[in-house]
Amino acid sequence: MSLDTVARAESTPDVEQPYADLGLKPDEYERIREILGRRPTSSELAMYSVMWSEHCSYKSSKVHLRQFGDKQPEGGWPQLMVGIGENAGVVDVGDGWAVTFKVESHNHPSYVEPYQGAATGVGGIVRDILSMGARPLAVMDPLRFGPADAPDTKRVLPGVVAGIGGYGNCLGLPNIGGEIVFDETYAGNPLVNALCVGAMKHEDVHLASAKGVGNLVILYGARTGGDGIGGVSVLASETFDEDGPAKRPSVQVGDPFMEKLLIECTLEVLHAGLVEGIQDLGGAGISCATSELASNGEGGMHVELDRVLLRDPSLSPEEILMSESQERMCAVVTPANVDAFMDICRKWEVEAVVIGEVTDTGRLTIDWHGERVVDVPPRTVAHEGPVYHRPMERPHDLDALAANDANALARPRSPEEIRTTLLTMTGSPNLAAKGWVTSQYDRYVLGNTVLAQPEDSGMIRIDEESGLGVAISTDCNGRVVRLDPYNGAKLALAESYRNVAVTGAKPLAVTNCLNFGSPEDPEVMWTFAEAVRGLADGCLELGIPVTGGNVSFYNSTGDTAILPTPVVGVLGVIDDVERRTPMAWGPDGEIIYLLGDTGEDFAGSEWAHVMHGHLGGIAPQADLAREKLLGEVLIAGSRDGMLTAAHDVADGGVAQTLAEMALRSGIGARTWTPDGLDTAVFLWSESPGRAIVVVPRSEELRFTSMCAARRLPAYRIGAVDSGLGADTGHEGQQVLQIDDVVVSLDELRSAHEQTFPNYFGPALTK
Amino acid sequence: MARVVVDVMLKPEILDPQGRAIVGAFGRLGVHGVADVRQGKRFEITLDGEPTDEVLADLHRMAEELLSNPVIESYALRVEQ
Amino acid sequence: MRIGVVTFPGSLDDRDAARAVRLAGGDAVSLWHGDDDLKSVDAVVIPGGFSYGDYLRCGAIAKFAPVMTRLIPAAQAGLPVLGICNGFQILCESHLLPGALTRNDHLHFVCRDQRLRMERTDTFWTNSYAADEEIVIPLKNGEGGYVADEGTLDRLEGDGLVIARYLEVNPNGSRRDIAGISNPTGTIVGLMPHPEHAVEDLTGPTTDGLGFFTSAVRSLVKS
Predict the structure, then answer these.
(1) ipTM score
(2) pLDDT per residue over A599-628, tens digit each?
(3) Domain range for C161
């Protein structure tokens, strides 16, 4: 067995290296040789190949993502404490509190191994939040799958849900929201995006930098094993003889108990002031942690790789560097604090070992049993990766799609047709009740969950004394983005913004998970660029910054890419969670109002998809000024006690909103189509900028006056009525009445709640 | 170095929903004629020395107090030659 | 009125249990698993969570913790103990209560607002409730199916040791719909659902869970 050391690399410049197998292009390989002034060792090659991969370096997206930083108001964003570039963004929410949140993808692993892929996705994002110095407080999961009735969906969905629950529940983090969307383009490419939010006091914010020459680098948490190595094993065959290990798993396996210990241990060392810099180990493991810490700090670090505690003693240095074993963190600690740090680790039974120290050499050097195997400038690994300007081309079918007018589709007219459509729609997979999924998640742990699914946002209390809280929503309508990516991205932002405001919280910051097909496809790249441009413009207009996020490319099967899916997460703050607005309406007689204007907007709608299998037409146009106004009214209404309930209008239109509110309350209502509107348009058009609110009679005048003064259209569309059953031939039952259409809540509930059990099996046995 | 193996199974009267789910999976994968599946645990214990009577007595005690829950499980212990 | 709340590695609902104790008017005292010291508390709550990651079996490793070397004999001598969810599992593994908890029959983790009937309301932990009072508190578990042999089940029923029973839906396959049991003197109670998550209107489905904690405070005040 011959170790590929720096010395050997210097003396054997012409050795053929499998850089292509590791995903590097010839010009990238040449650049590495240029940077080093020699050929890379196999360890260095492994590091560069993973750190320069799309996933770690953002090489195809960097030039576009710049807009998030570039497009900002004069003087910057007042609420932003830590922006893009760190593990997660941090915003000031008042009272000395800072909140950090981020969403990330773990798509491809979840297709391979749904349970572990999803579980380790949760683990990874939680560690990102932890490494900012925050206590993780809640998780949310935007999920997308192939068609609900497809056999493979029956394999993937239950596994993913079990994995998220299995990991998150054991960590003790309430799951407060998310999405479940089905579409044929996600078959073979499920999207498992994981969000985490945490909070800390301003003074506890920590950054990932290695400062202070002579400070020690400590690796702690789980032992390092062969998880996730996959392709790097091609290097092992370079340096091992034929008796060496042949196969390494490409799936990472998570241990939530280990992560729970890691959380408690890390928070304790942070609060004891024992840490100078901290980084979690995610994709690219030790390679990433060391190069990023070094790059952000003094610029130099030395590591003794053989000090790393191993699960598998046969691992080669290349494999150790690339290992994606979960539940590991890296801390930079002064020599004086090491003992205290180790004491706390011992208390929590977390293994820890000093693996290196900060230097002033400007190089990252790594030794294996006294021999140098890595000697690189860390910036070139972590931050100066390739930057691509990929070719872009507007998709050729966009015009044809736009011309295929969804507003021309046959609409239900008679009461019978409306009634049937209502039941079909509320039972369709994207609109059906998600209780099958959400009941597998703990929503109660930590005792601060104020709103969770099916409410519009997930809301948690941050401060038990003052009642300060934050609310988060994640949204994206991939079909609309497909029709019009610039607008579609703005609309995703608008929907998430609206979902936060409708619960009474003021939107403050944005995170995003941009899920797209292959960046080597010019049409996908154009779509990506347009979506980013729309999101960046939208954020500027709404006055809320993107604080961080994630890009997932290569979500395609053969030539078929997924629907372009830029998931947008908005975080808002509420001074007192007691004032939040839930979605269930209350006692009899409360008045139901539709805020905002309804137009013929069936393009990309759920109705067009479910009832006609149709995708086409001109996408609704985002009107962010209107969204801002709507948000202000919703927040003022909430704060001043004018609203009993509120719910946004989005997928499935007003019909879906009314149905969900009725079912959540268990109380019926009488509603009617406003004058001048076609009933089908009223019920199923998906015009943005709308919400339904419920106002007590005593507040009606005050509320409508406020709307009029602010010029927000408000249409009286109904009243809560628990006595309708008797009048409509449903004695003793609660009913929802829309014009002449009457449906009992029992029938509506049945249609709405049977869908998931029908596809995925009963969740509970009776 | 000697090795002792302890197999722990749920007692027959205890419902084993995992085993039942596995029977279902057999069927879905086209394997029929499987009457039942019960799922258990196997512990492989490597000893420093020989499996003396004293050591085995300790292991039986561990099997009863730690490796299995006698309320719902039974165990079988054997020395591997 | 000092009520200890034990924290094992992996305990999750210890903070919530402490909050519930405080809301009920008691002093919550944190008890670390590694210390064999009960700090002279008047009663103990073993909270929910995944102690030791549920390795081997739920509660199987926790029962050997140093704090348990003190707690088990103290409980046998009359110290009141409430075991919630994982705490119930630990009480059974420690043989302070009969029976065992097994994997939910439908194999899923389930979190739901569960209706219960309070069937024994003269114990240290349940005297705030009226006889046969129906309450709704959250339930969240993957291994919550209570099992015991027929003889034990008959004895529990016959001696009135079932303190709470599931209504409407049996969420985990527990025998005879048993949600919680007690020892004969009513000082040791094991309960699968989580009363500590139903103590505030803001965050719980009801405040029905507070009764377990006010019962304890009331019992201590009386004695």
Answers:
(1) 0.95
(2) 999 999 999 999 999 999 999 999 999 999
(3) 2-222
Task: Give C100's contacts in chain B (Cβ within 8 Å).
Answer: 69, 71-72
Q: What are the residue ranges spanned by the domains of chain A?
A: 581-755
pLDDT in tens, A457-508: 999 999 999 999 999 999 999 999 999 999 999 999 999 999 999 999 999 9
Task: Compare CB distances from C111 to A258, A261, A442 and report the shortest one's residue.
Answer: A442
Distance CA A544, CA A510 (A): 7
CATH class of A581-755: alpha beta
Closest residue by Cα to residue A330 from A269, A278, A294, A268 = A278
pLDDT of residue A238 exceeding 50: no
Number of domains in chain B: 1
Q: Which of A261, A438, A443 sits opposite C9 (nearest CB)?
A: A261
Distances (CA, A) of C152 to C161, C175, C181: 11, 11, 12
Catalytic residue among C33, C85, C92, C197: C85
Instruction: Decide if A766 touches C, using CB distance below 8 A.
Output: yes
Chain C residues with CB-CB distance to B under 8 A?
A: 56-57, 60, 64, 92-93, 98-100, 102-107, 145, 147-149, 173
Q: Which CATH number goes with the domain that contains C207?
A: 3.40.50.880
Closest-CA residue to A264 (of C7, C17, C87): C7
Q: Which residues of A touch C140 (CB under 8 A)?
A: 169, 442, 444-445
The CA distance from C105 to the nearest CA of chain A, in Å, is 8
CATH of residue B58's domain is 3.30.1280.10
Question: Per-residue confidence at A680, pLDDT binned at 50, 70, 90?
Answer: very high
Q: Say if C173 is an interface residue toward chain A (CB within 8 Å).
A: yes
Question: Which residues constitute the domain of residue B45?
Answer: 3-80
- What's the whole-model pTM score? 0.94
Which class for A648: exposed (0-12), middle (13-18), buried (19 or more C-beta within 10 A)?
buried
Shortest CB distance from A444 goes to which of C34, C171, C197? C197
Residue A250: its pLDDT value, please?
Answer: 63
